[in-house]
Amino acid sequence: MDATDYPELTLREREILQYVIQNFIITANPIASKTLVAKYKLQVSSATIRNTMNNLEKKGFLDHPHTSAGRIPTERGYRFYVNDLMHLTNLSIEEQKVLNQWEEILNSGMDEAVQSAARILARLSNLLAVIISPKYANGIFRKIELVNLSSTRLMVIITIESGLARTVNVEVESELTRDDLEKVARVLNERLSGYRLSEISKKIEEMLADYESNDRTGLIRVFIDSADTIFEDHQYRRFYFGGVEYIAMQPEFSDLSNFKSIIELVEDEDLIIHLFDSDNEDSNVKVRIGRENKIQQIEQCSVVSANYAIGNIKGTIGLVGPTRMNYPRMINLVEQLANRFKTFNKLDS
Question: Which of 121, 165, 178, 345 is the least buried, fewest Cβ under 10 Å from its Cβ?
Fold first, then answer.
């Protein structure tokens, strides 16, 4: 059922649903009507609250375990809460301080910053944090540098707009002089400037056709033949995660089979990329609850994720946890950390 098709809720039903969810997030235990009345000092009888909870259950927002008189939220309940009831909370001064300190790590390079971001997000959330590195092939070519490693091996350093760089080693048939390398690099920089790396991979032969016949080094042909390896990053997309030890302490994962699903997730690169690598171009935080993820291993989980931008290329940052997660706080954490990646752009300007 689409969120816009939800049955109408009265003000009291909205209030009780919010209380049930907020309580369940903290305790992981079903809550009964008497407890709600006492805890939130409601000015109505427990019978009235019980009737309201019954109505919410009939509408699909609450459920009750067979062994308990209390209620727990359903996926529909959580979705309504996220869309209509929750209020984002401010991060604590200490949390802000940790994130501010992390920004300084951006000076050390993207890979180290991404790895540390995964660890920090996991520690602050006590959930599984996953960060996918930006897709370099979508970057705009800025320059290329060529360095001799041996008589038959070159290091190719490609820098894209935003300052990110990657290196690739290529084999050559004979030793080339420094002048040879500088001449070829100059030609490549002139011809390839302004194109996406993925475009270069597909069109490089056309871009260099008139120059190849005059290239006595044979290096232009090496670039044409190895363009897919040099300019694309099929094997270069990386993801980092942290927090497996934290999520293991959540009550929902005390069941070995549930915890095993989390381990299967982090060990499957294709599954991770599929789960987090959204096609959406916006940077808004996205929340997928339970079966909305359409991945069997995490049907009992929710995912909070957002894109982050480094220049014109994007990566993804996200959290995986039980559907009972503290959505307002987790959304704020993901959003705040994603926004701080913008600092990397400023460092390079």
Answer: 178
Cα 224 to Cα 144: distance, rounded to the nearest angstrom? 15
The least confident of 112-121, 189-198, 322-331 is: 112-121
Distances (CA, A) of 321 to 37, 87, 241, 301: 29, 19, 13, 5
**What is the per-residue pLDDT across 124-159, written as a single tens digit (0 to 9) for each?**
999 999 998 888 888 899 999 999 998 889 999 999
Contact of 323 with 289, CB cutoff 8 Å? yes
- Cα torsion 261, 264, 265, 267 to 10°: value is 160
- CATH no. for 93-135+237-348: 3.30.450.40
* Beta partners for residue 183, in sequence order: none
Q: Which of 294, 342, 349, 318 is nearest to 130 (CA)?
A: 318
- To the question of pTM greater than 0.90 for the whole model, the response is no
Domain 3-85: which CATH number of 3.30.360.10, 1.10.3720.10, 1.10.10.10, 3.50.50.60 = 1.10.10.10
The upper half-sphere exposure of residue 235, i.e. CA atoms within 13 Å in the direction of its Cβ, equals 5
Architecture label for domain 137-231: 2-Layer Sandwich (3.30)
| Highest mean pLDDT: which range of 182-191, 210-219, 253-262 | 182-191
Residue 285 CB coordination number (10 Å): 20
